[in-house]
Design a protein that fits this description.
2 domains; Carboxypeptidase-like regulatory domain-containing protein; 14-stranded mixed sheet; four-stranded antiparallel sheet; mainly beta; CarboxyPept-like_regulatory; signal; 14% helix; Immunoglobulin-like; 413 residues
Length: 413
């Protein structure tokens, strides 16, 4: 069969396009460590990614990171950023393909001291109120999706005895009158269960942990700062102004006006000076606040035959910019509880973490109610004594610490 000249041209162009597309597809990766340039110590929870492409990951507690990105984005800048440091920017093409030993040094950003007399006269509550009032301006108000990595873990006297991990999709719809403004779906997940777990810790978990740490201010002002609750706290401007992405950041400290405030917190709110956007909320519950939230009063310290005493409830939420708006970057929560059974004391520590790895548009109906994640205990148990990352495919994840990896030596059969 003879082909016409135009047909031959068509096939030639098609073959070229197919070849070009194939070369453009696929993913590249960078992995390594982020450290302080002055002290050479690792920097935990630093963002690593391409802000222009809405993708990224976070360093673990040892400063280690793993970042996978589409090959087509090779000429985009990799940004490393965390409050208190000057941002690092470098084109991905400057690195060796699939380089696994990257060391990125961040230079501390010298904070600017604030005059003490100014702090005394400054009305910090107004700064917080203004930031809360600008949530609708600074944060997205149309439906969108967050792809991210979730990890919840249980430590028993410092040893990991339970780890649940998943790639999650969180759909948010900040529009008014939406009955379910936030939905969470697990794309894939697993759990490691140790046979060394004490019976004293039975039932000690957060089945709705994924829902907690994917929540953000986009869909509503935090209840403890909403309306009249704003006046339940005393606010004070910190004596230094920090920096994030080369922009000034005000840090407002807050504490309850008295011990009678329900579910009281003590912490800080970091506010971007340029647009009054909230970029970090960090707090501990007070001793009285812990009792209100977990209902562990003097008459409720016995759980079955086990005494329990909650020591700490800590939360830290960070936001990052993309396309003129601020989105949830990561959410971390810690719960420490002291258990006593048969005169043996055991410290149980639950850690919850969600890290946004990609931001996508949505119509508000990408996650049907039938797909909503109910309980992370339903994740498939890992019985193979190996802690690998093949399960995550092309999704980004947070590198487990060496201590986490040790759980595979104690898996329940």
């Amino acid at each position: 069969m003879r082909l016409s000249f135009h047909t031959l041209v068509f096939f030639a162009v098609f073959q070229w396009l197919t070849s070009t597309s194939a070369q453009a597809q696929g993913y590249l990766l960078l992995s390594g460590k982020v450290i302080d340039k002055s002290t050479q110590k690792p920097i935990a929870h630093a963002y690593v990614g391409m802000m222009s492409k809405s993708t990224g990951t976070l360093t673990n507690e040892d400063g280690q990171f793993f970042y996978r990105f589409p090959r087509i984005a090779i000429d985009s800048a990799v940004v490393v950023a965390v409050i208190g440091y000057k941002p690092f920017r470098q084109k991905a093409s400057a690195y060796t393909l699939n380089q696994k030993d990257v060391v990125i040094e961040l230079e501390p950003a010298t904070p600017r001291l604030v005059d003490s007399s100014f702090i005394k006269t400054f009305e910090a509550r107004n700064l917080v109120s203004d930031a809360l009032g600008k949530i609708k301006k600074n944060n997205p108000q149309t439906p969108y999706l967050l792809n991210g990595f979730y990890r919840e873990s249980l430590q028993q006297n410092g040893e990991y005895v339970d780890i649940r991990e998943a790639v999650l999709q969180s759909e948010k719809d900040p529009r008014p009158k939406i009955l379910v403004p936030e939905k969470v779906k697990a794309l894939r997940g697993r759990q490691f269960l140790s046979e060394n777990r004490s019976k004293a810790l039975e039932g000690y978990s957060f089945p709705n942990g994924a829902t907690i740490v994917t929540h953000s201010i986009d869909v509503g002002i935090p209840e403890y700062l909403d309306g009249k609750n704003l006046y339940d706290y005393v606010y004070e401007l910190d004596d230094t102004i920090a920096y994030y992405l080369d922009k000034q950041v005000y840090r407002v400290l807050f504490r309850p006006v008295n011990a009678g405030i329900k579910a009281a917190r003590t912490g800080s709110i970091s506010i971007n000076a340029a647009d009054s956007a909230i970029i970090r909320i960090e707090y501990d519950f007070t001793a009285e606040g812990v009792k209100d939230v977990l209902k562990t009063g003097a008459s409720d310290k016995v759980f079955g035959k086990t005494k329990r005493d909650t020591k700490r409830v800590y939360t830290c939420i960070n936001y990052k910019p993309f396309a003129g708006k601020w989105y949830l970057q990561d959410y971390r929560m810690l719960l420490d509880t002291q258990f006593e059974q048969n005169k043996v004391q055991t410290l149980g520590s639950i850690k919850l973490q969600f890290v946004t790895t990609e931001i996508q548009k949505s119509n508000g109906m990408r996650i049907p109610e039938t797909d909503v994640l109910i309980d992370t205990e339903n994740f498939s148990p890992q019985v193979i004594p190996k802690y690998d990352e093949v399960i995550w495919g092309n999704f980004n994840f947070i590198i487990p610490s060496e201590a986490m990896r040790q759980i595979v030596n104690t898996l329940a059969k």
